[in-house]
Sequence to fold (445 residues):
Amino acid sequence: MFVRTIEENLKIWQKSASRKPLVLRGARQVGKTSVIRKFGVENFEQVIEINLEKKDQFELFDSTKTIDDFFKRVSLFFEKKIVFGKTLLFIDEIQQSKNIMELLRFFAEERPELHVIAAGSLLEAKMAKEWLVPVGRIDYRYLYPMTFFEYLQARGKVQLLDTLKNIKLNEKFDFVDLTRELFNEYLIVGGMPEAVNNYVQNQNYDEIRAIFNRLHTAYLDDIHKYARSHESYKYFELILDQGPRIAGSLFKYEEFGGSSYRSREMADAIDVVEKVMLLKQVYAINPTVLPVVPKTRRPKKMIWLDVGLANFKSNIYSELIIKEFAGKVMEQVVGQSLVASNNQYPVDLYYWSRDKSEGNAEVDFCLQHNSHLVGIEVKSGNTTQMRSLYSLGNLDPKVVLVRVSWDDLKIEIHAHTNKRYQILSLPIYLIDRWREIVGMFVKEI
Fold:
């Protein structure tokens, strides 16, 4: 089984004195069930798994009214006794039962010593409707497709991964070519566990494409579960077809994907697809005062669920094979990595854009790190042209300026229009460490 970064966070939850039932949220097929099973086997004496997609289990547990009744049904059905502190109770596909979701609050109140984890792939769409979610009585964690570091672990590149995790600022790295080959591989395979597992075993791109096609079909099949009407189906179908193709790019609701659909309907549909974690909308900001306030009327940038799926739909394998990394591919993978960099809460991700009256400047990503706003410019080549980054630094000298490219990890001094800017050069293959490295950079400056 793969090692996922979230496992360490789950161990912290397990030992917490203020622990509550935990709901693991994430899109379909990102590995939620596998992660929980692995965590349970390695950290508990027994795991009791309830799968509410199975008809017999749904019928038995959906009608439960009390915690004691729930325990009685578990004991009779599985012929196992729950032992507090030693048993992990895993409720999979919890989106099937509104009643069980609402019952989680009583686990927190009446049996806080029990370890309970629930998961569900379309939970966000259900929660967005009229479910009574036990706010404040459950914890959440978020799982995304595998990051580059997780991919290296799965590929068995443990020594290389250990080296990457320990590179210091301004330290020479001698294995850039090997790392670049593996990163290029990651852009094609992506981070969906089934695709990664298949490639690790067979290294056959044709099989990877078949998996992506099956995953895309599964997402299409899910549409009817969160489409409000047959009429709205067409909006979701368009998003699933065009969303991966525009990953890493700006888009507008109006005439989305070349359609004649109205912006209101497209905005509502995209919002739902974002809730089920198939995409992330990146809003524009202009003032850099924290907390930032997004410019909701400006075009958004779209980050798709997974770079492998996005490149499959875009059919740009030939460019990737000869290593012509298009700018939007790099923005997609960086954006995806930034989103996946925190499992405890969703990352607020933006891009900076100057007001039209002030000229034309845009920085690819902005997000908050501690008390600092971080501006990130993504460069697919080795160019050091960073006028937009300079503009952002000129607007607010307190903003941490970062250039992500294939260049070495170092602090750079750049001069532009008689001003000097300290910029962090962050290699794209170290994007998993961005928080740590930005923290090192801030201490240096």
Remarks:
- The CA atoms of residues 244 and 310 lie 4 Å apart.
- The chain has a mean pLDDT of 92.
